């Protein structure tokens, strides 16, 4: 969208968040001052400005996610001891349904709000109405379809849990535009506080109900409690008047951007949860429980990093794309190697130390999940890279490309998972997931990015060192773990630490390590020779 040509038009369009632009100052009894000719925009300064805001938001999102995932990890260990494997299997079916409806509940309106160009306050009543109507209609569909969905997964007992858990979208619909407003303003600090408060409520409700014998319903009621608490705080923090309305032109703009985005996200959710349905149908709820646990462990890092990054990547890349193509390319060049360097050592260490990790955290009864986890870490890396590609495509308005990307991925994933489950049980299903992601999803993501002008060749050299570091970390950790034997804690601490040190020594440049080593001396007060005399 081009800038308005006149000052009245500029004031009508408002600022980036919809605030009216200030009137030009006029001296008393005189004429308006001649406006200064603005200097040509500097791409680097624009990147730095957006980077500062995004960095602040990312720090808050990462800190909040870290605290939440640590709490979620503790809660999962408690529930793994209070509930049975079959309870996890039933919950997995309900979770698959919920994660799909959560991303399509508002037909992409939330993403459209984040990147909206124009007067913000004139758009929000229509966006709020669309969110409420679409979520209510979708919930009605899933209420009716819940028995058939549970039957297709081979677990009829999941019907009630599906109906309860998917009710979360009704709460999310009320707060969707307000959540998008906080993201747009880079107020991830407030959003983080709201989400953390919701998690506290979830943990309290879930653990209490699990002790009382509520089985898989303890998960569902905990999620509902979390949505209510988080939603209440989001409404308070956003400070946005809650008005309903409908403007056909605004709705058309929202849907033209949002519908393809919702379709892409919906397909992404299907891809991440279709394994539950296939494993449950082919192998039953017992093996599905093991598969769910392994999938959850492999999702720790994507949920911690990707969800935090997504809170800032979409508004950041949208602002860079609005500026110019060069700024967007530079932003991508900085983001991809950073993300890759972070996830590689985690994936490698989870691969080599899967058995002691599962055994120490959940007990030996869950050891079957370890063999599954080793292949799902490949999927973990793919998920994080494709999620970043998804955000880049969305930021430039190429939402249809996200649909084709996930359609191609799904076309490979479903038969691969079915075949793997029949050939090698839950481990085979994990292999199918990994192959479809690495061989199909990543190439399709690169192709889609190239079509919108985002080149990947300049980034490749920066990925070589992290890749070599990952190989070294895997070799060192495997060798140390083999020598230590079956002491789970010792393997994780010593073998994992050794692998991490090997990775750092290879990936971090020597001059930077040396600079870190001498930094405390550099900050000392300079010596005064006269005083020594």
TrEMBL record:
Membrane topology: Multi-pass membrane protein
Organism placement in taxonomy: Bacteria, Bacillati, Actinomycetota, Actinomycetes, Streptosporangiales
InterPro entries reported in the protein's UniProt record: Poly_Biosynth_Transport (IPR050833)
Protein name as it appears in the record: Lipopolysaccharide biosynthesis protein
Locations listed in the record: Cell membrane
Membership in a protein family: Belongs to the polysaccharide synthase family.
KW Cell membrane (keyword) present: yes
Keywords assigned: Cell membrane, Membrane, Transmembrane, Transmembrane helix
KW Glycoprotein (keyword) present: no
Region feature Disordered, mapped onto this chain: 1-49
Pfam families, per the entry: Polysacc_synt_3
Main localization category: membrane
GO cellular component assignments: plasma membrane
Residue spans crossing the bilayer: 88-108, 129-149, 193-214, 220-242, 254-278, 290-314, 335-353, 373-396, 403-423, 429-451, 463-482, 488-508
Extent of Pro residues compositional bias: 32-43
């Amino acid at each position: 969208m081009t800038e308005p040509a006149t000052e009245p038009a500029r004031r009508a369009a408002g600022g980036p968040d919809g605030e009216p632009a200030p009137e030009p100052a006029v001296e008393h009894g005189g004429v308006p001052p001649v406006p200064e000719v603005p200097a040509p925009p500097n791409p680097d300064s624009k990147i730095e400005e957006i980077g500062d805001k995004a960095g602040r938001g990312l720090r808050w999102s990462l800190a909040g996610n870290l605290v939440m995932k640590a709490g979620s990890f503790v809660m999962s260990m408690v529930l793994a001891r209070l509930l049975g494997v079959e309870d996890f299997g039933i919950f997995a079916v309900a979770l698959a349904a919920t994660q799909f409806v959560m991303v399509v509940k508002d037909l992409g309106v939330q993403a459209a709000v984040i990147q909206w160009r124009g007067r913000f306050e004139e758009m929000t009543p229509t966006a709020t109405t669309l969110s409420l109507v679409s979520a209510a209609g979708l919930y009605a569909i899933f209420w009716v379809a819940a028995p058939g969905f549970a039957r297709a997964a081979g677990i009829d007992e999941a019907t009630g849990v599906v109906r309860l858990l998917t009710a979360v979208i009704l709460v999310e619909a009320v707060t969707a535009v307000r959540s998008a407003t906080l993201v747009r303003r880079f107020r991830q600090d407030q959003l983080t506080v709201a989400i953390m408060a919701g998690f506290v409520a979830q943990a309290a409700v879930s653990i209490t109900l699990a002790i009382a014998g509520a089985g898989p319903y303890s998960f569902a009621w905990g999620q509902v409690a979390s949505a209510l608490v988080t939603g209440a705080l989001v409404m308070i923090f956003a400070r946005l008047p809650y008005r309903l309305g409908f403007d056909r032109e605004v709705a058309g703009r929202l849907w033209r951007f949002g519908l393809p985005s919702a379709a892409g996200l919906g397909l992404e959710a299907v891809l991440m949860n279709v394994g539950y349905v296939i494993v449950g149908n082919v192998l039953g709820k017992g093996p599905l429980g093991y598969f769910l646990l392994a999938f959850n462990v492999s999702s720790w890092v994507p949920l911690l990093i990707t969800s935090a990054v997504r809170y800032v990547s979409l508004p950041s890349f949208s602002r860079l794309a609005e500026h110019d193509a060069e700024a967007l390319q530079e932003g991508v060049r900085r983001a991809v190697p950073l993300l890759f360097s972070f996830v590689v050592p985690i994936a490698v260490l989870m691969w080599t130390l899967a058995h002691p990790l599962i055994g120490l955290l959940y007990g030996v009864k869950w050891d079957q999940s370890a063999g599954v986890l080793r292949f799902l870490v490949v999927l973990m890396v793919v998920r994080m890279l494709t999620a970043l590609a998804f955000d880049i495509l969305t930021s430039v308005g190429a939402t249809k490309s996200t649909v084709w990307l996930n359609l191609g991925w799904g076309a490979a994933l479903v038969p691969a998972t079915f075949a793997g489950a029949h050939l090698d049980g839950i481990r085979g299903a994990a292999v199918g997931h990994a192959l479809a992601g690495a061989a199909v999803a990543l190439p399709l993501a690169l192709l889609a990015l190239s079509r919108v002008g985002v080149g990947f060749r300049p980034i490749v050299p920066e990925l070589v060192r992290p890749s070599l570091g990952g190989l070294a970390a895997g070799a060192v950790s495997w060798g140390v773990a083999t020598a230590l034997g079956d002491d789970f804690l010792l393997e994780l601490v010593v073998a994992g630490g050794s692998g991490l040190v090997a990775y750092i020594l290879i990936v971090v440049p020597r001059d930077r390590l040396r600079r870190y080593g001498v930094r405390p001396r550099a900050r000392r007060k300079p010596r005064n020779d006269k005083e020594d005399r």
